[in-house]
Amino acid sequence: MRFFLMLGLFGMFVPSMVLAAVAPTATAVVYPLGETEVFGLVKMVQDAEGIRITGEISGLTPGGLHGFHLHELGDCASPDGMGVGGHFNPEGHVHAGPTSLERHFGDFGNIQADEAGVARIDLRIAGAQGLEMVFGRGIIVHAGPDDENSNPAGNAGPRIACGVVGMSKL
Ligand SMILES: [Cu+2]
Ligand SMILES: [Zn+2]
């Protein structure tokens, strides 16, 4: 009897431990909105320090800074990208930058394009936890820089690329 009780407890704990160990990477293929040619791939993984975001996006303004956020919804259907709603903000904070203690969850700041219009992304959002909340939401790249201050969205201009976050193995 005790054996089966222990087996039952083991059965409850082990799957959650295994799931945590092999938590999927969050991946978004980012497609152009409207007439832009902005395209790329973004990946997010959770570690003890926070969330690490890597990837590469092309077709940007050469040398430009572009606002880069996780928005609330995963609907990239409209050419203006407005279907994804505002910044993902589960805690009701004001807009800020990724190094601020109080900010939207989706405030990833800016990505910097090189002279060929390609941004190679390697951002660390220190202290961010809760990667499980990103799935099904929208990654947006903006035409202009996020000032990491103005509400509600950093005055980053039009939405030029959009991707829905899904699960991948790597
Ligand atoms: Cu945005
Ligand atoms: Zn924001």
Record field, number of beta strands: 9
How many domains, as an integer?
1
Tell me roughly what share of residues is in helical segments.
10-25%
User: How would you name the CATH homologous superfamily?
Assistant: Superoxide dismutase, copper/zinc binding domain
Query: DSSP helix count?
Result: 1
CATH architecture: Sandwich
Q: What does the radius of gyration come to? A: 18 Å
Question: What can be said about the biggest beta sheet?
Answer: 9 strands, antiparallel
CATH fold name: Immunoglobulin-like
Small-molecule components bound: copper (II) ion, zinc ion
CATH class: Mainly Beta
Distance between the termini: 42 Å
Query: Which overall shape is indicated by the principal axes computed on the Cα atoms?
Result: globular
Would you tell me the structural class of the helices and strands? mainly beta
How large is the share of residues in beta strands?
Answer: 35-45%
Average pLDDT: 90
Order of helices and strands: HEEEEEEEEE
Which stretches of 5+ consecutive residues score pLDDT under 50? none
